[in-house]
Amino acid sequence: MNTANPLPQACATARVIEALAHTHLYDCYQCGKCTAGCPMAAQMDIAPNRLIRLLQLGRGREALDAQSIWQCVSCQTCATRCPKSVNCAGIMDALRQLSMEEGRVSPAQRRVMLFQKAFLDNIRRNGRLHELELIVQFKLAGFMHDRRFSLLFKDATLAPKLNKRKKLHLRGKKVRDRAVLRRIFARSMDHS
Amino acid sequence: MSRIGVFICWCGENIARTVDVDALAQEVSKFPGVRCAMNYKYVCSDPGQALVREKIAAEKLDAVVIASCSPHMHLKTFRRAAQLAGLNPYKVEMANIREHCSWVHHDRAKATAKAASLIRLSVEKARLDHELQPIRVPVTRRALVIGGGVAGIQAALDIADAGYEVVMVEREPSIGGKMAGLSETFPTLDCSQCILTPRMVEVGQHPRIKLYSYSEVERVEGYIGNFTITIRQKARYVDISKCTGCGDCWSVCPLKRNKSEFDYGMGVRASIYVPFPQAVPARPVIDAKTCAKIIRNGCGLCEKKCKAGAINFQDTDKLVEEKVGAVVVATGYKLYDIGEKQDKASLAGYGEYGYGQYKDVIDSLQFERLLSASGPTNGVLKRPSDGAEPKNVVFISCVGSRDNAKGLPYCSKICCMYTAKHAMLYKHKVHDGQAHVFYMDIRAGGKGYEEFVRRAIEQDGAKYYRGRVSKITQEDGKLVVRGADTLAGVPITVEADLVVLAAAMRPADGVAELAQKLNVGYDEFGFLLESHPKLRPVETNAAGVFVCGACQAPKDIPESVAQASAAASKVAVTFAADELMREPEIAGINEQTCVACYACLRACPYHAIEQAEVRTPRGVFVKHTARVNPGLCMGCGTCVAVCPSKSADLEGFTEQQIYAMVESLV
């Protein structure tokens, strides 16, 4: 695996992505094993291997604007099976992060972003998932964003099923050592 | 006082641009012992060499220093010139003022001063040079060929046809190697057995080839021209000099359900068996791991049935010695094991492809056996699980190869071609079937190769998808292959009845151990190292040992055969001379001062030092000593470095010379 960064000066986005994902984009030889194993690839506008190709070509803008980076479910199959050990899932994360920082999240994917934010907030507060709180927070944030009532009641029919599996607690449990949690978040927010 | 001549070369502009050659010649001529110093535009040219010869004669020079390029480039040239002028060639020294000076410096004054220092060193060395004579070693005109695959067969036949005796050692019960098991061969689709078996018979019947089948090389001693090889003949339990190969034994053997190694587990064989009907020698072997007589003294039917009385259950391994002058290594390859278990920690398997878990996921050699007319299914394509004819077959290339995560980053070179062949042969057998090929790149460089692959696609309708497969699962009796078509940019799923994995080529088992016995280098994957990838492709760094075939790198049949013939011609070259000449710059031991600690013996990487005794002319024992075998010594100087009593020294680089060189600088 090469250690030298072979990216030309022009590929600013690609450089940032490499740094964020701790991986070498030019190790990718476009075999497509990432796309082959991706459970979401059939729904994606730009498949994972093509996103990496765009970055290799210095067309990072197109990658940042892709819908597919928000469709990725972070299952890590791509990175696990990559014959060149390119951290494809990490690249997806990095693309999402950059897209958000630059305010380029496409309107169609805004809800995905809001969900992810709500999810992270939830973990930050509790150290574990509190489903009810997540649902409320996500739906409120979504409603504030696009003012559509339909979101509020979408999936409401799932409630009995969730209840049956004892997923709906009025009061969630929190982890005991919250200081550790704060440190984890502090460290992962520290890009340097 | 010595009479040394110094010749400074301009190398056109290469040296003269940076080094002031006139000033340099003037300065050098003042060095003690230098009789004359001159410069010339190209000392290596004919007039340049004439100048050297002329000066040697006119000035009665007793040593020469050429200040020019690297000795790798022209030491031989100047030694020859000196010899023509009547000077011992080992009294020529070179000072490298090109690579070590003019090419790497800019400052003219400093470069000139450095060149003067370099020449001073060489003058000091030349002053203490001894007159040496090349070492002559006799040659045993017999070659050992290790491995009886197509490369070994070709090499053995070529050497034998050139008039020299050949000893062939084959590990398996029959020669033929991997090629004997193939169905048809690309790009002409000629039947593998039809072209190979006549060559195997030739080896078996050749008056100058001695075949040791079911044998391995145990020990290698000696050096080029004079190797002594110890061969282990594994217990076969059948005396092949008595056996007629009638077949009564294996037809009577009740244990017929053993997995056949020759069929890669696709077929079965008895406990006493010949690997395949065309085997050479066509004599059976008893599998000691499964034979009831050997395991628990039962059965013994074959012994009762054998009219020739050839069966011997008391057989043991035997060691035999053979003397040879050159060795050809043709140990070939094996396939990468696709399953999870690996024989090396640096490798990983493909859990995601279900090999070993699903019966209908097989490797390429197994598929060859299913296609072969002499295979377990007599050439009728039946899948292993239920014997049904597969209507959709998926071929996956680069399994293991070009996969850093599995530990084999190299390209196995032949898989693109045989996968196209597989797709084609499949279509020839199953007319309403569909072949699907997942590939990353198609590497079809070779005569008629590209056309062959296009034929598979255009005429035989194989569907090619550019992309790797991520996972194979089994659902409702179908193998579900999840891959990608990166040209269309979409993931695709193919339901298959049979999946064939083109596994990477790896060097055969035990090659590293063999290489160590022969002092031949090998790379991180176990492929043997040639001396030079372009100019010495079949030589190794061990003199007299040659390589050919897939033990050196992945290669196909035409290339293996070409390389085998090349190796054979190198053997013939070795045998052409009456005596072999070796460079005399080797180590010597002062037996008067040697304390016989044998530190040198342990340090010597070439096993060139032996224990010896010093005796008076009447044979009275005086002392123990270490002694250098001049046939084996490569002149590395390791013994000189480790000798605590300073008894070891290296001709051409004596300690006296090195001290003199150092002293001249300080």
Keywords:
heterodimer; A: 192 residues; mainly alpha; Fumarate Reductase Iron-sulfur Protein, Chain B, domain 2; 2 domains; 12 helices; globular; B: 666 residues; alpha/beta; Rossmann fold; FAD/NAD(P)-binding domain; five-stranded parallel beta sheet; 34 strands; 27% helix
Reconstruct the topology from this structure:
The complex is a heterodimer of chains A (192) and B (666).
Chain A: H1 12-21, H2 33-37, H3 48-56, H4 60-64, H5 68-71, H6 77-81, H7 88-101, H8 110-126, H9 131-146, H10 149-153, H11 159-164, H12 178-189
Helix pairs in contact in A: 1-7, 8-9
Chain B: E1 4-9, H1 21-28, E2 34-40, H2 46-58, E3 63-68, H3 71-84, E4 92-96, H4 98-102, H5 108-127, E5 135-138, E6 142-146, H6 150-161, E7 165-169, E8 184-185, E9 190-191, H7 192-205, E10 209-212, E11 215-223, E12 226-233, H8 248-252, E13 258-259, E14 268-269, E15 272-273, E16 285-286, H9 292-296, H10 301-305, E17 318-324, E18 326-329, E19 333-335, E20 361-363, H11 364-371, E21 392-399, H12 415-429, E22 434-439, H13 449-458, E23 463-466, E24 469-475, E25 478-485, E26 490-496, E27 498-503, E28 505-507, H14 511-518, E29 545-547, H15 557-576, E30 579-582, E31 587-589, H16 599-603, E32 609-615, E33 621-628, H17 638-642, E34 648-650, H18 655-665
Parallel strand pairs in B: 1-2, 1-3, 3-4, 6-7, 6-18, 7-10, 18-29, 20-27, 21-22, 21-27, 22-23
Antiparallel strand pairs in B: 5-30, 8-9, 11-12, 12-17, 13-14, 15-16, 19-28, 24-25, 25-26, 31-34, 32-33
